[in-house]
Amino acid sequence: MQLDDPLPSSFLDPARVRLTRVPDVPPVLTVDGQTYEDVRVRLAFPLSDERKYVAFFDADDAYIGMIIDVTALDAQSQQVVDDELRWRYFTPRIVRINRMWSKSDRSYLDVETDRGATTIAFKGIRDHIAEIAPGRIVITDDHGNRYEIRDVHHLDRRSRRLIRAVV
To answer: Which positions ≥6 away from 12 have C-beta within 8 Å?
Structure first.
């Protein structure tokens, strides 16, 4: 697609998109004068493109459309999208691994995150830890909560050794 080509029909023109919100209420999306209340905001590629390919769904989970890049929206709409994505894709970042152990068929990681200390529990350590890019690791617990190590090389030596033993 050339830069001056028209957008495919499933893509929305960011210049015609406005998002607003009232505290504690899902956002309202207006596209070309048509208003959608109780909008859901999702990423097409949540692990690799955190501000690109943002999709909008109505209250019945019907697809409305997608924008390619959040930065093309006006400042207020960008803020609404960013707030929604932070809430939907809450992923604490692991900054230190204190301990790793197994008991019966369960594995545990005692970690410090940017949100505080926690213990991550899961069954089958290799099924729940994935290196999605060189040095970037995502850990999913038994409840579907995700934790991220942005860059293994920024961890302390002991933490690197512990995580590399299972990745």
So the answer is: 31, 56, 64, 65, 66, 67
Give the 3-state secondary structure of residue 161.
helix
What is the tens place of the pLDDT at every residue in 79-135? 999 999 888 888 899 999 999 998 888 899 999 999 999 999 998 777 899 998 899
- Residues 76-91 have pLDDT tens digits of 999 999 999 888 888 8
**Are 78 and 99 members of one domain?**
no
Asked whether 135 and 117 are in contact (CB, 8 A), the reply is no
Whether 81 and 143 map to the same domain: the answer is no
Domain boundary among 88, 117, 150: 88
The reply to whether 33 and 63 lie within a common domain is yes
Rounded Cα gap, residues 57 and 112, in angstroms: 35
The answer to whether the beta carbons of residues 85 and 73 sit under 8 Å apart is no
